[in-house]
Amino acid sequence: MKKKYLITLISGFLAACTFLASPAGAVCFEQEVLRQIYDQLHEAICTLTFTQEATDPRTGEQKRQNGNAVALIVSPGGLLITNGHLQIENIHAFNFRAHVRRGGEETQYAAVLLEKPQDINLSFLRIQCEAPLTLPFVRFQRGSRLSLGEPVALVGVLGETLDFQRAVVTDRVCAVLEEPRITYCLTSGLRLGFVTSPVVNAQGEVVGISGFDLGRNEGGDALARPGHPLVFQTDLFIHHVDAPPDISAGAMRDEEAWLGVFTQPLTEEYAAYWGMEEAGGLIVSTVVPDSPAAEAGLAPGDIILRFDGIPVRATIDRDVFVFTKMVRESEPNKVVELGLLRDGAEKTIHATLGLRPRSALDAEEYTDETFGLVVREITRDLRILLNLGEDVSGVIVRRVISGGPAHLARIQPGVIIMTLGDYPVTGLDDFEEAVEKVKARKPSEVSVFARVGTATGFFRLRPRW
Fold first, then answer.
1. Using CA atoms in the order 181, 186, 187, 188, what is the torsion angle rounded to 10 degrees?
2. Helices (H) and strands (E) in the chain, counts
3. CB atoms within 10 A of CB 359
4. pLDDT tens digits, residue range 249-292?
5. CA 418 to CA 375: how far, in whole Å?
6. In the chain, what are the domains?
7. 131 burial class (0-12, 13-18, 19+ CB within 10 angstroms)?
8. Which end of the chain has the lower number of beta carbons within 10 A, N or C?
9. Closest Cα partner for 194 from 34, 42, 420, 12?
10. With contact defined as beta carbons under 8 Å apart, do 405 and 386 qualify?
């Protein structure tokens, strides 16, 4: 669909942007240069709209909201780059729409998310269109470098109240970090519409993309410099433009490696309690039965100090995710060496990693409009987190539809349904079959036997037939 937009005059805005956001002095861009940068790049910048779901791994409950972001068109066929925070743990983004403006008109395209590169916090998408596309796109300068104090211009998008007008601002490189890789820091904070903006030098060359690194609690690695606006120079990502990643697929998660432990960090308090000189490590709190960890002989109370030769120095909660990510990115069926501390003595064992079982993040679910429920299967990780034995069967409520019979009966997310009417429920198929049988009978009241925490009891549903 297309929509006509009024193109506003930007000369006054461009003039207002020729300033430095820090007290170091004026940024060296003439108004005409800024106008040329804007004319060159503004149509290669699009906005993304999408839906995000964040999943609570304890209950499988999901919170859904709409989101938006800025993306760069980096090929005439519709390859897009946007910020990497779209693809982090426990968050699923989908239903992407790319809004592209050309000649004052906006065209909306469906887009599909690609696999996220592991070496940089950027996400890639590809526009889906049956007809061949020849879109305006950003051309990057290869081998680009920046220096301390160098002025740069960024082209981005203003907010909804300003009709998402494309705009240009100026900034300056305030620091250059040499290790562990060259990192350019910007002076000013980045507004949302200027995250993933093309960064242009005084010669008019696009030398990189603005953005943020992932924090360690988000999966950032040793190269990450989170919390400060940066310039990702061209050479860090151009190889992904030349050879784009494959389409992202939830099925890829089935190929992740799995050890089968729940852990917590060895904090300074724990280290002092056990008389250890130094904090850092992972305390094994739970070993999943029949898991690779169980077969290797790991036990609760063991402290993991090394994983496949890599030191594990976890001291805070978010370090646990770094270890989990390390395991998942290993190869299934790989034999890894684990360095442990057990009863004060160091020990080495070997474990053969398995395939990660289905988790609450990718569990199957069923929507029942009769009673107003969305339920999903009980996965192994939920059993452990909720302390459910194998004798507890049923489905877990993920969402309750407002105003439906389940909502009026005060059923809440996290409730485990074990019978519906007179029909036992051991899984999704049983639940769906029970719903159909109850619908055929149309009783005035339907009893639901359920588990809430450690207690069990009945809910009374009064459907509107």
1. -140
2. 9, 28
3. 17
4. 443 444 678 898 888 899 988 888 888 888 889 999 888 888 99
5. 12
6. 1-248 (2.40.10.120), 257-355 (2.30.42.10), 360-461 (2.30.42.10)
7. exposed
8. N
9. 42
10. no
φ, ψ for residue 453, nearest 5 deg: 65, -120
Amino acid at 414: G
d(CA 83, CA 122): 5
Return d(Cα 403, Cα 395) in angstroms, integer.
21
423-455 confidence digits (pLDDT tens): 999 999 999 999 999 999 999 999 999 999 889
DSSP 166-188: EEEEEEEEEEEE-SSS-EEEESS
CA of 193: how far to CAs of 67, 173, 189, 212, in Å? 12, 19, 12, 13
β-strand partners of 172: 151
Q: Give the pLDDT confidence of 187-239 residue by residue, as tens digits.
A: 877 888 999 999 999 999 999 999 988 655 544 555 567 778 999 999 999 99
Rounded to two decimals, what is the model's pTM? 0.53
Q: Is 77 helix (H, G, I), strand (E, B) or coil?
A: coil
Nearest-angstrom CA–CA distance, 414 and 56: 10
> How far apart are alpha carbons 114 and 338 in whole angstroms?
33
As beta bridge partners, residue 304 has: 282, 340
CA 287 from chain center: how many Å?
Answer: 27
The tens digit of pLDDT for each residue in 51-69 reads 887 765 444 455 777 888 9
Tokens of 357: 């079982």
Residues, the chain, total? 465
